[in-house]
Amino acid sequence: MVNTNNPLGFNESAWNDLEDGEKEKVTKIHDWDFSFLTGDQLLRHGVCERCIHDDATNELKRFFAVKVLRDIHPMGCFSQVVAEAWHAFILDTQRYEEFCSVVYGKTIHHIPTNYGKGVMDNSVWMSVYREWFGDFPRVWKLDKEGKEIPGYEHAMNIEGNIVSSDMDSDDGAF
């Protein structure tokens, strides 16, 4: 269950374990206006179900929170829907540059499909995510048409790792 008292729905114990500077960064990410991504922007990127647009942008913020606070490399973004929200954000270059500068101090680079090399181990960042936010919600398991991808529930919330040769990743995948 999402904790609505803490930014991004952080679990209470995980939130209390963060240092003040980390809480400040999370709050900045939480408060950042991503509303420009919902609606037409995500539709242009093939995310057909408008009802998941807000979930996609919230999960993108959580993905960024793990990246910014723990700087884990590589971090494969295995959700088609969350990846498309990231793509739409990157294309708004001024907003993306400002966001990265304010919350991370530098650009969070993006490697599309990691040039076929894949991200073979996402278990580290996935375990941080689960510690902070609980199980991965439904939006991580959906394709762009809103259909559930077979096997993702078990891989994400039981095995704790997703391996893919075609997922997008952050700049540390090499």
Number of strands: 3
**Rg computed from alpha carbons, rounded to a whole number of angstroms:** 15 Å
Order of helices and strands: HHHHEHHEHHE
Helix/strand-derived class? mainly alpha
Largest sheet: 3 strands, antiparallel
Number of self-contained structural domains: 1
What spatial form do the alpha-carbon principal axes imply?
globular
Average pLDDT over all residues: 83
Q: How large a portion of the residues is in β-strands, by DSSP E?
A: under 5%
**Distance separating the two termini:** 35 Å
Main-sheet strand order equals 1-3-2
Q: What is the count of DSSP helices, taking H or I runs of 4+ residues?
A: 8
Q: List the uncertain runs.
A: none
- Kindly state the percentage of residues in helix: 40-55%
